[in-house]
């Protein structure tokens, strides 16, 4: 997928998940704080299971697409005489999707049963991000300076995500850590877009000189701007959710956020069991 | 042991221990969870001591084999005029075995007395894995690209094991951490096999081109597949143990797992003391 | 700002903040210890908000100065035919200031409302320091040996600051950690001065031979001396604050430190709420 | 001090301190465990203060010796026309001693007053070890392969010591961590000896070929043997102290270990205050 679309697509997924997580974690934290003050509770277990199912669905489509596009490997791993590998790039992308699929499955298992403790979902997300970064690392050797540089920034966003996920395995419900993970997902998403626009400029724009030192300097700085933007979006969403809840509390009327956010009614609520386990 | 057998053998040991640990940690966790619900308890101290003794036995055999095979060093470190080192490879393998022997001894000391706190066994396993990785690191310089690359993957599995062991010194009884360590043992085992099959293809198969870039790319991806397999095996074993215990609870009859898993009968049981200490 | 003034200025800011923090954390810790013994309490919330506002003010001035000095970019990012980047150095400095501005804003939000938990201020300071170090890292490639070496020492001070800030997100009110952060701020400040005096010797002194190995060796050692000095200053300030409070306790009279340190009067004091949250 | 004596001397100091610490931490842990069972307590505060004073004394002698030996710098930093640095090697060693002196002073402050919390002593030891490693790192570039390699092993022992010291700042009274620090001190000591004997073989022995690959392989393995030895010595000392206390408890008679180990008599004992603070 060495083209603009091949960078826009994964970038959009990360941005979408980043936006959704910024809302989810904000609601989680605010409803947790309200709990102390004796207010309503939300049930997130079903939401998490649905999120896991969506991840499984998307990645399954991704794997099938990578395998069965016209110029895909069609599940052949090697062929020819002398034998050579078939479309390793597509196989690598399939492998990345596979681990995000496992991560989605872990979400479902963690939140739909008491089989595994909370934290497994974060651990598997960390593993999936690690595999993504690990495979990218051997992607860009022997390419021009700027190409390597711009991908090394991506690796930083990915491995920072790995680190934050692994810390989350042990530290639950830390708002700062959760919002950090959110901002890294947004950063990774917008940076995928940036890579696409730099390496495959659309609208017939002028090509970037991939060996110019000042371009490298600009890209380094640009990465910081992307992160400032990611922080801004995360902060905005948190603030909007906060205001919404404040208004809701004042008017004290029921809301229907849709999905399966329901008021907590009794002591057998799974969320309570969850908190007991922690 | 630069041949197929020399990679199959250590690989098999790691796979065996990985499988055994996946069962052990699953039983441990499930019996711990049952405890809260007022069910039976298992005594793992004797099992751990036996495990330590088995490790000491295996490694002792390993050291003796490395020293006294026909082309071994027979405990000579240097000889000849001018003096030169005798069979450094065998000495290095003996050294690795020595540290796993110390790890086994630490298991015995930790679980057969109250001399040392729990955690020493994990610490010494971490040291043993570190020494293994440390000695491997200087093994493969000046070799072809693919040979170095495939061994660097092994180092990743080893040092991830070191990290998880050191965290386990401080964090006891964390299921995710324990199963992570299990999956890394399985990964190391199957990857030893993979190295053997790549570098010394059996059945007169075609040799791998050790300087082909696409081979390197495939091996990188293959390492991820091995880890997906390790996760699958760990999850399967955990699930099987879970089902077994569920059935057992339902029928409420005594089971004899063999070994020395015995019902916990009184408050003076060492396992209780152990949990008190933590 | 590749001149003496361009290194003296940021250095002075870090020294100023380091000195201020050494006083602030000393008072915080000593009043915390006194609390146990049933003595007076100080309210630091307003002080922290003022500190944040000062940071926002300074960095805003910094950004404007970098943009609108006579040879600055005046907010133009690229120009000319063929297009080229305008004054990337100034843009990079503006970016650094921007993140310290965000850090100042985070201070204000953290301490003036209950919107975000304590720790956000340290986290954002860590991010700001990381961005500073990240941009510096690509600053000095292709320069003479000593220039690179002296900047790599600066990076060590910066990244040690990043690490200590991130640990502070999880570990609050640890005196050793707080004073470590203080000493790193002082180190960074005095080292900025050292860089200035080495690369742009004032008073027409002899130039340093930037490729002489013994100069590199001296600079390495000199960095350690700077840190010894930073430890000394931190220890001195802590000791002076300690003595001041001891005298104060003995005479048992009210003091007016100025700023907004006020005696804690009632249970609704925000500082109490803060400690409850932790 | 590029001779045999210059490596034997610091090595001996680390071995001495390692042996002493192995006894100190063993007594500390065993008396802590006995406390729970209602037995005697020892007062370690005075011992720690004396240890700090000894460190200050030794390092002061070290600094003076490095400065005022016949071919030392006699406190001159630069001289000559054109100006050049005077005896940088001696200045570097003085700097290392200076930080161990600060560490000794921190020991005294930590244990003789309540000014600073426990943990400062470990933190400053970590800083001192870091400075030692930091200065060594730029010591051996441009030297033969084996010389660099054997010093890089030393750096591993030093930086592992830094890491364990920094963890000890947060984790007090963890026996495994304490004994790990002990074993690293012993390792550093014996490895200093090994470096001396390899680079400056005494008794007119044959010189080592510093560019022979098999020598490098042997030294790597030899480092592991040194660590096995360090583990053995640590375990032996712990076991001997354990046996001594067991006998003591059985006979229930007073012992006079000398130094200032005294029975804890009353609630105002500083050791109690210390445990309260933690």
Automatic annotation (TrEMBL), chains A, B, C, D:
<keyword id="KW-0472">Membrane</keyword>
<dbReference type="InterPro" id="IPR042127">
    <property type="entry name" value="TMEM45"/>
</dbReference>
<keyword id="KW-1133">Transmembrane helix</keyword>
<dbReference type="GO" id="GO:0016020">
    <property type="term" value="C:membrane"/>
</dbReference>
<feature type="transmembrane region" description="Helical">
    <location>
        <begin position="152"/>
        <end position="171"/>
    </location>
</feature>
<feature type="transmembrane region" description="Helical">
    <location>
        <begin position="176"/>
        <end position="197"/>
    </location>
</feature>
<dbReference type="InterPro" id="IPR006904">
    <property type="entry name" value="DUF716"/>
</dbReference>
<feature type="transmembrane region" description="Helical">
    <location>
        <begin position="6"/>
        <end position="27"/>
    </location>
</feature>
<dbReference type="Pfam" id="PF04819">
    <property type="entry name" value="DUF716"/>
</dbReference>
<keyword id="KW-0812">Transmembrane</keyword>
<protein>
    <recommendedName>
        <fullName>Transmembrane protein 45B</fullName>
    </recommendedName>
</protein>
<comment type="similarity">
    <text>Belongs to the TMEM45 family.</text>
</comment>
<feature type="transmembrane region" description="Helical">
    <location>
        <begin position="89"/>
        <end position="111"/>
    </location>
</feature>
<feature type="transmembrane region" description="Helical">
    <location>
        <begin position="217"/>
        <end position="241"/>
    </location>
</feature>
């Amino acid at each position: 997928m060495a083209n603009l679309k091949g960078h826009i697509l994964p970038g959009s997924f990360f941005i979408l998940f980043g936006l959704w997580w910024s809302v989810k974690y904000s609601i989680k934290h605010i409803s947790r704080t309200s709990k102390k003050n004796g207010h309503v509770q939300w049930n997130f277990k079903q939401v998490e299971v649905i999120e896991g199912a969506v991840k499984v669905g998307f990645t399954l489509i991704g794997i099938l697409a990578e395998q069965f596009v016209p110029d895909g490997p069609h599940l052949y791993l090697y062929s020819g005489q002398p034998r050579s590998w078939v479309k390793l790039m597509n196989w690598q992308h399939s492998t990345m999707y596979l681990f995000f699929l496992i991560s989605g499955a872990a979400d479902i298992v963690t939140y739909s049963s008491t089989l595994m403790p909370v934290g497994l979902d974060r651990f598997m997300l960390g593993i999936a991000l690690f595999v993504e970064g690990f495979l990218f690392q051997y992607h860009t050797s022997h390419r021009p300076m700027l190409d390597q540089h711009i991908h090394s920034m991506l690796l930083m966003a990915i491995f920072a995500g790995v680190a934050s996920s692994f810390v989350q395995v042990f530290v639950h419900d830390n708002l700062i850590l959760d919002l950090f993970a959110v901002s890294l997902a947004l950063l990774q998403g917008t940076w995928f877009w940036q890579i696409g626009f730099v390496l495959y400029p659309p609208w017939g724009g002028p090509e970037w000189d991939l060996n110019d030192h000042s371009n490298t300097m600009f890209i380094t700085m640009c990465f910081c701007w992307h992160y400032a933007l990611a922080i801004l979006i995360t902060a905005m969403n948190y603030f909007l959710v906060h205001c919404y809840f404040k208004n809701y509390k004042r008017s004290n009327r029921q809301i229907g956020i849709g999905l399966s956010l329901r008021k907590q009614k009794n002591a057998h609520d799974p969320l309570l069991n969850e908190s007991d386990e922690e």
